[in-house]
Amino acid sequence: MQAVILAAGRGTRMKDLTDNVPKPMLKIKGRPILEYKLTALPPEIKEIVFVVGYKKSRIEEHFGSEFQGRKIRYAIQENLNGTGGAIHTARDMLGDKFMVMMGDDLYHPKDIREILANDLAILSAESDNPQNFGVFKINDDGHLLEILEKPQNPPTNLINAGLYILNKNFFDYDLVPVSGTEFGLPQTMAKMAKDHPIKIVKARAWHPIGNPDELKEAEKVLDKFMR
């Protein structure tokens, strides 16, 4: 089983903190964010594929070809064309089933283990303001029907937490554009959901790290993400 970790972007909302390092290499209590992510993975994950781009040498030099007993490989996303494009960058390295996670968020180890039990799945988080995000519409079995972007009347309070279980069927679908130059992974999965059941799993804990305040807050909440 492989985990694909998307770590190609700079993280412009971090301002000068990412002048010399990619955002996933910013430190929480002296350790890069990416180390915490690898530590949270269950033993079923035998190989890591980092999708890298901006300041990629900082990641390659730190993790090398093996880390904590897991093989490490690198896919270079020269054109930062979104999360969907990132998965296609790593396509030739991937097996039939694989996990995908964002390089800059903290996930609970039990959530990772739970989502792994599914053939196709997306981790969701409950939000007090779902109308500000992409919201999952699900059926009675908890499977994805569609993703509604910033709806005025959200059908649920479940938003995307950026942790996915995928398989090779993903590559049978044209990527869905989300802007002029970027293609979305979850939006493409929503198209896929018409043919393949995709489970929406509710997170116990999730901490996105998109700006300096969230990075600082990560130090306070870190304990809840440890084994």
Explain what you see:
- With 227 residues, this protein is α/β, with parallel strands linked by helices.
- The protein has a single domain (2-225), classed as Spore Coat Polysaccharide Biosynthesis Protein SpsA, Chain A (Alpha-Beta Complex), CATH 3.90.550.
- The protein has six helices and 16 strands.
- The protein has helices at residues 33-40, 56-63, 82-89, 109-116, 185-192, 212-221; strands spanning 2-7, 27-28, 31-32, 47-52, 66-67, 70-76, 97-102, 105-107, 121-126, 134-138, 144-149, 158-167, 176-177, 183-184, 199-202, 206-208.
- The protein is globular, with a radius of gyration of 17 Å.
- The model has no long low-confidence stretch (mean pLDDT 95).
Summarize the structure.
The chain has 227 residues and is an alpha/beta fold.
